[in-house]
Structures are given as structure tokens and as C-alpha cells.
Amino acid sequence: xxxxxxxxxxxxxxxxxxxxxxxxxxxxxxxxxxxxxxxxxxxxxxxxxxxxxxxxxxxxxxxxxxxxxxxxxxxxxxxxxxxxxxxxxxxxxxxxxxxxxxxxxxxxxxxxxxxxxxxxxxxxxxxxxxxxxxxxxxxxxxxxxxxxxxxxxxxxxxxxxxxxxxxxxxxxxxxxxxxxxxxxxxxxxxxxxxxxxxxxxxxxxxxxxxxxxxxxxxxxxxxxxxxxx
Length: 229
Prior knowledge:
73% of the residues lie in helices and 0% in strands. It is an all-alpha fold. The radius of gyration is 17 Å and the shape is globular.
């Protein structure tokens, strides 16, 4: 059970710190600050809960591990449930905090750190989410494989997420994580819920493709490292 609790806490931290930066500090820190918040949250969780659960923090990442042969089906279900629960609870806490703003907080007018697309088409958003998740998953799988990044795996993975956010926030909101998109969408409602399918389907396809590539030996051996990050 410890690994499921860790995934709940880790995903809670990712959504809490990342989305809090979007909600409360975006004007002050800009897009670079938002990207760093998500990336640094992953780094922090990788070095704290990573040795216990692997710090997936992302249903698509867990699916990629499952497809690669490095995760059992029962663990996949438990991880996905814990991650989605962590994201929803974090979003609920952020909602309560936001409502404490002087004069209240209008979600309809100000948004709720949800993912979505408007300036670019759904096709553009889908392609970015799928390709970015594929590349992200490749980094994760190789970094945590025997002979991979070793103690630097958490840093490599976190910085890759920073890079993904810098590249794609304007295109898709840069999620690459169904749980991260699910939590805020439930509170934002409207278009966020109607567009949620893309942030589930595209990352899962990208992560599955990466898992298949590793399993087929296209990107090297699939033996996990002794201490996953």
C-alpha cells in the first residue's frame, strides 16, 4: 500500500505546486516560472518517494511502464487510481484557497489552471501532447533503466518536463499527464471538461508507443534500475 500512498502524495504535490503557480503567481513568474514549478515538483518527488513507488505521478507514465513490461496490471490500476485521486484532492484544496481571495475568485472569468487549446487547433494540441509524452516517456524509461542516468534520473526527468512546458504551453497548455488535466477540469467545468478527452487519449498513446519501443528493444534493454527515480 505504501507505493499507492506515495503516488497519491506525489501527484498531489505536482498538481498543487504546479497549478498553484499558474493560479496565483503566473503574472509574477511568467511561463518560465510555471514550467519550472512543474519540473521542480517532479524532481522533489523523484528524490523523496521515487525509491518507493518510482514517482510516476502520471497515469500515462504508469501505462508506459506497463506496456514496456516493467509494471503489473494490478499495480497499474492502483497507481492510476491514486494519481487521479491525488490530482483531484489537490485541485479541491486549491479551489478552497482561491475562494479566500478578497472579493472571491471567479473560475469562469479567470480559469482554474486547466489545460485547453484555443489559439491552435485540436489537431495541433493532440500532436503536441502525443509526441511530447512519447519523448518524455523515452527519457523516463531510459533514465530509470540499468545503465541509465542512475542518481541523476530524477533531475533528467524533471528538466525534461520543464522543456516540454516551455515548448507547448501556448499550443495545448502542456499537460502530458491525464491526472494533472483531470483535477482542474472538474472544477473549471465547461470547455475544460469537453476538451479533457484529448489530455487522456494523446498522452496515453504517446506513452504506450514509448513502452512498445523499449519492449521491442528499439531503444535498448528494458531491465529496470535497482532504484527507480
